[in-house]
Structure formats: C-alpha cells, structure tokens
Amino acid sequence: MSALNDIPDRQIARPSGLAEEVYRRLRADIMSLRLPPDTRVSVDSLARELGVSQTPIREALSMLEANGLVSKKHFAGYATAPRMERAQLDALFEFRLLIEPHAARKAAEAMVGSDIALLDSGAAASSHDAFADIDTDFHKRIAEGAQNPLIADSLSRLHIHVHIFRSCFRSEIAAEAVHEHGAVIAALQARNGAAAEKAMRRHIERSYARLRDFIKD
Amino acid sequence: MSALNDIPDRQIARPSGLAEEVYRRLRADIMSLRLPPDTRVSVDSLARELGVSQTPIREALSMLEANGLVSKKHFAGYATAPRMERAQLDALFEFRLLIEPHAARKAAEAMVGSDIALLDSGAAASSHDAFADIDTDFHKRIAEGAQNPLIADSLSRLHIHVHIFRSCFRSEIAAEAVHEHGAVIAALQARNGAAAEKAMRRHIERSYARLRDFIKD
DNA sequence: GGATCAAATATCCTATAGGATCGCGGGACG
DNA sequence: CGTCCCGCGATCCTATAGGATATTTGATCC
Asked: Which tens digits make up the pLDDT trace of B30-39?
C-alpha cells in the first residue's frame, strides 16, 4: 500500500479538493445528460457557474479526458464524448462479454451473503431513470464481487458509456432485463458459478441486442 | 465522430499543449524508473525542472492519476504508484488471461500481413531494457490487431504496470518468452485463431509464473 | 540518544491576470 | 447575392502570486 493512500481504520479521512468535487459534478452531469454527448465544455463558463477558479476546472477536465468522457483539442478546448456509434457499441459489448460472465462466476464464489442480498433486479423501478441507476448499481456490485480491482475498474469505466447511450433513447424499462437480472441473482444466491456465468452472458447478449436496435445502420 | 477530434487527411495536425508534453515526459520517466514507484512527485520541483508553470504540471498529473500511475492526497501532493504486490499481480494476470488470448484470436483473423511482419519476438534484443520495450510493442500490436479500441486501451493501461514491475527486477531476457512470442507469431502468420489464442494463453500463464517468482510471499 | 516542541522552509492549492487563439458578425467589394 | 476581410469579444492556455498546510530543522529536556 502506498504511503499516500493509506487510510487505516482510525485515521481521519481527508477532505477533497475543489478539483475532485468539480470532477464528481461533471461526471454526474455527463451521466445524467445535463451535459449531453458531443457538447462543448467551456472552462471559463464552468468556472463562473461553479464559482471556482479555472484551475480545478482544468484539473477535473484532465481527469475526465483520461477517462474518455471528454476530449480536448489544443486551443479549441474540451467537449463531451459523442454518443456511441455502432462500431463502438460492438466493441464495448465484445469487451463486456469477455469480462462480465467471468466476473459473475467469481462473484458467485466470493460474494458475501449480505452483499448478494443488496442486489436489486430493478423490478420495483418506477421509471427508466430509476431503472438505469439500479442497473448500474447491479453490474457494479457484481463486478466488485469478483474481487479483482482491474475488473471492477474497467467495467466501471465502460458502463458509464452504456448508461449515457441508453439515456439518450429514454427506452422503457426492459422487463426482460429485470428477468435476466433475477436469473443472475438466483445463481449467485445458489453459489453456482457456472450458472451465474451463463446467466450473465445471456443477459449481456440480450442487452446488446436490445441496444443495437436503437442504431439504424 | 466528434467535431473536436476529426483530423481528416488534409487538415494540419495541431501542436500539443504543454500539459500533454509534460504528461508524456512523466509517463516515460515512470516507465523507465527514472521516477521510481512509490515516490513523491513535487509540483513545484517539476515546474522548476521542466521550466514551465505549475498549471500544465497539475494537468498532466491529473491525467496520470486518472490512469492509475500516480496517486494524489489532498494537501500532501502526488506520488507514483507503488510497485505491484502479489494480490495486484494476481489481479492483473487474471485480467490479461481474460483478454489477451481473445485478442490474439481476433488478431489472427484481422491483422494485415504487413502488421504481422512487424511483430518482433525479441530474439535479437541486446539487453533486458531492449527486450522489455520489444515485449511492450509486441503485445500492443497484437491488442491493436484485435480491432477493438477498448481491448487495446485496457491492455495498454495495464501493460505499463507489468513493464514497471519487470524493470524493478532487472531480470535476464527470458529465452522462454522469446520462444513463446515466436509461437504466437507463427499462429498469427498461419491465420490460425485457435492456435493463436492457445499460444497467447500459454505465454501469459508462463509469464505470470516467471514474474510471480520475484515476489516472496 | 530519543522525544518533544516551535520556528522556518518547502510545498500544495487556488485565484487572478495577461497574451495567444478562435469564432462570429458586420461591412466592403465584385 | 456571395465571398472575403477585419475587428471585437469570448475563450484557451499558461504564468504568477498569495494564503493554507505539511515537512523539516534546530533547540531543549530527560
């Protein structure tokens, strides 16, 4: 563990700097489409709007850039990443299919019962937005349940793009997705790794097919 | 395609800003161990050393932080990430084994012959450092040959950690690794996806075993 | 020699300012 | 009417400065 990042149990957690708060704000705005895809992001406007200087804005945007959520062009400034097109959607789901079924298998073996109990299939979601947030949480928890930070991190990075893509289309809650989530949860509860992997693969494949329909080639 | 990032054939590429140049410098220093793992990185010292103001330093460090190469603690500043320990090495190779064999299979189907011809097994490397650079290039090219930017990007992110880890130990050139690279290349040349996947899996597993020996539990 | 404390120094973080660049609108010209 | 040019305002990018915080150093005491 790095000497800079240790927060053992009894130490007092440090407050965040402004840059980190700006990062969180912008990330949330991107996810919720308050900052839509392919939109100019002005450093000066943001500084005025958030009531801070340009410095933390630029730092936050630098981090968002490294995460692929915004892009930067020298002397022209920043813009949010555009909505995924077909090739990117294909690439993303290829990637998910490599990782998430494996993560579900690992989670079936490693997750503690209290964490499994926190999984929510989204059955009680009252709106598309609520379902999208539950879906994000569902996949995040299982990725974390795989006990591999790289898996959790890489899925987190890409899931935000799924979230944004889906939000652009304001689809109805996918009753199928709720059903598929349920199958994954049942396999996890049964500690059946093979079944969890299979259920997650099926869910990802079906999710891919549903999202693909939004893009007309 | 985002309006900000288009560089169609006849447009003039933009120069980089200072922040990007600082990012490249620091990244190279981290990779070469000129900036060792778990080392404080002072914004003011760097600004003096590189002859620029603090602003591009902070922006570059923000990007490096988002990439996991440095960490930041509020009011205490930045430090390079520590050398991987056993759990992180395990996580990293689990991840590689999910991705790289698949990438090799894809590359066997998709890579053009001229790119395959550029693959270098490292047989002619004259030193450990030269071999490490060739190894990085080898894996990078195959990941790119898989034609999925997410795969290429995620492997690029993690490979730098392998590179740093290996550099810490200054091991001899692994003649075995050269041989394994050769098997991967042969399968790619033969356009045999299954063989490429198998050869890459074998290489990653053996590489893992070799690196694991450096960490005494 | 080790522990403690206070002062000095270095560094972190952010705000502000200024020069460079870009984009837009209006006017001139053919 | 369409095109070109120029000026102006907005924005980008970086340097600088100053207050806040952390680290180091030196003195004192046991």
From this structure: 998 999 999 9
CB contact under 8 A, A94 and B148: yes
Q: What is the CATH number of domain B86-212?
A: 1.20.120.530
Q: Please give, rounded to a whole number of angstroms, the shortest distance from the CA of A127 to a CA of chain B.
A: 30
Classify the phi-psi angles of B36: left when phi > 0, otherwise alpha if psi is within -120 to 50, otherwise beta: beta
For residue B29, report the phi and psi dihedrals to the nearest 5 degrees.
-65, -35
Q: Are A24 and A35 within 8 A, CB to CB?
A: no
Could B4 and A73 be called an inter-chain contact, meaning their C-beta atoms sit closer than 8 Å? yes
The string of pLDDT tens digits covering residues A132-145 is 889 999 999 999 99
**Where do we find the tokens 């998910």?**
A96
B44 CA to chain A: closest CA distance, Å? 15
Whether A151 sits inside 8 A of B94 (CB atoms) is yes
∠ CA B100-B103-B108 to the nearest 5 degrees?
A: 130
Average pLDDT over residues B16-24: 94
Q: Which sequence spans correspond to the domains of chain B?
A: 18-80, 86-212
Q: How many CA atoms lie within 13 A of A111 on its CB side?
A: 29
Topology of the domain covering A18-80: Arc Repressor Mutant, subunit A (1.10.10)
Nearest-angstrom CA–CA distance, B30 and A98? 30
Establish, for the pair of chains A and B, how many residue pairs have beta carbons separated by less than 8 Å: 116
A41/A65 Cα distance (integer angstroms): 12
Give the nucleotide nearest to B75 (CA→C1').
C12
Residues shown for chain A: 217
How far apart, in whole angstroms, are the C-alpha atoms of residue B191 and residue A143? 34
